[in-house]
Amino acid sequence: MCHRTFIPNYNFCFYIQPIDENNRKITLNLWNEKVNEFKGKKEDINAIKNAKIGEYNYIKNVSLINSSRVSINPGVPEATKIRE
Questions:
Q1: Which residues pair with 63 in a beta bridge?
Q2: What region holds the Replication protein A OB domain (predicted)?
Q3: How many Å separate Cα 9 from the centre of its chain?
Q4: How many angstroms separate the CA atoms of 63 and 3, rounded?
Q5: What pLDDT score was predicted for residue 20?
Q6: To 10 degrees, the CA torsion angle through 10, 53, 1, 71?
Q7: Residue 3 vs residues 12, 27, 30, 35, 63: alpha-carbon distances, Å
């Protein structure tokens, strides 16, 4: 589920999802063309490479940048462990 927020001159949305087996939460921020490019669903595991990491109100956030790469449901052991 994407929560869209209006920011003048930007297309922005964010997702909040569990990040690991301890159910820690993280916000995934998508900006501009990344909003329409992102094809992940609520139940998917997303591996993200080369993104900007920050924190706001004690919640970690990841923002995709131009060089970011997203793998949806990657075939790595960590993804399988999180899904279980």
A1: 29, 52
A2: 18-73
A3: 22
A4: 14
A5: 61
A6: 110
A7: 9, 11, 10, 11, 14
Q: Which residues contact 71 (CB under 8 A, 6 or more apart)?
A: 46, 47, 48, 49
Q: Is the pLDDT confidence value at 64 over 70?
A: yes
Convert the pLDDT of each residue in 16-47 to its tens digit.
666 766 777 788 888 777 777 877 777 788 88
As a whole number of angstroms, the distance between CA 37 and CA 1 comes to 15
Q: Give me the pLDDT at residue 50, please.
A: 93
What global pTM score does this model have?
0.65
CA dihedral 15, 19, 24, 26 (to 10 degrees): -30
- Is pLDDT at 70 greater than 70 in this prediction? yes
- Collapse the DSSP code of 69 into the 3-class scheme (helix H, G, I; strand E, B; otherwise coil) and give the result: strand
